[in-house]
Amino acid sequence: MCDYTKQDFYLKKILLFCVQICFFATTVISLHGCLNVNLKSVLPNQIYYSLDAIALESQCKNPTSRLALNVSVLSPFDGKDILVYNEKTEITILETYKWIDLPKNMIRNAFLKIALNHCMQVEQNPSITQKIKTLRLNINELYVKMQSDTNNAHIYLNYEVIGHDMNRIKSGIVTSNMQDTNPAKALQDTVSDALNKVALQIKNVN
Fold first, then answer.
1. Which strand (E) or helix (H) includes residue 163?
2. Mean pLDDT computed over every residue of the chain
3. 204: DSSP letter
4. How far is CA 111 from the centre of its chain?
5. Please, are residues 161 and 80 in contact by the beta-carbon 8 Å criterion?
6. Phi/psi at 61 (nearest 5 deg)?
């Protein structure tokens, strides 16, 4: 009789423990659902943009120049967040605007089309035996400066054209500033303008 009582006692404890576990698991799941609903109602909807807004308009059948392309962007500006400078030069990020890809990839894709529009061919995977020039694009600044209700986009880059013998053929600095009510659109226009300036400056380089 005594053994039966002990067995019954331990059985009840096990059942109580199982009930507590089930209650805890149900509570956690319920809280997780509530948190998801609350976060969705609080977090703003994000809109994704690309820096590559170039339309391919080339009618060129025989490119006047062939070159390889290297693009680098300084780390603070090579992320999917859009950086904003205020009038005190304090830096924040735009909550609802994001890049769909890293700026260096989008800028590379944009220049591929700009080069074709200027009758230049960018070799995407040149072999080491090809004796072609290399364009190095270094993006040093890429941000938006907000003043009142205007978004002033800014880019500062330097470029180098390197010959197959590793000698520098040409180099330069390009800046561009554009405005738009949409900060992403302002940056698209700024990047397009700067890359077109580079293409014009290097298209006749031999």
1. none
2. 84
3. T
4. 15
5. no
6. -100, -30
CA-to-CA distance for 202 and 206, rounded, in angstroms? 9
Closest CA to 123 of 136, 114, 107, 134: 134
In this structure, are residues 155 and 142 in contact, taking their beta carbons and an 8 Å threshold?
Answer: yes
Kindly report the pTM of this predicted structure.
0.76
> Is residue 165 very low, low, confident or very high in pLDDT (cuts 50, 70, 90)?
confident
Q: What single letter denotes the amino acid at residue 191?
A: V
Q: Under the phi-then-psi rule, with left for phi > 0, alpha for psi from -120 to 50, and beta for the rest, what region is 166?
A: left
Separation between Cα atoms, residue 161 and residue 203, nearest integer Å = 11
- pLDDT(117) > 80: yes
Q: 205 CB contacts (<8 Å, ≥6 apart)?
A: 65, 133, 161, 169, 170
> Which residues contact residue 70 at a Cβ distance below 8 angstroms, ignoring those fewer than 6 apart?
134, 135, 136, 137
8 Å CB contact between 45 and 71:
no
Pairing of strands 120-122, 168-180: unpaired
Q: How many CB atoms neighbour CB 130 within 10 A? A: 11
CA distance linking residue 172 with residue 169, whole number of Å:
11
Stretch 9-24: mean pLDDT, rounded?
A: 61
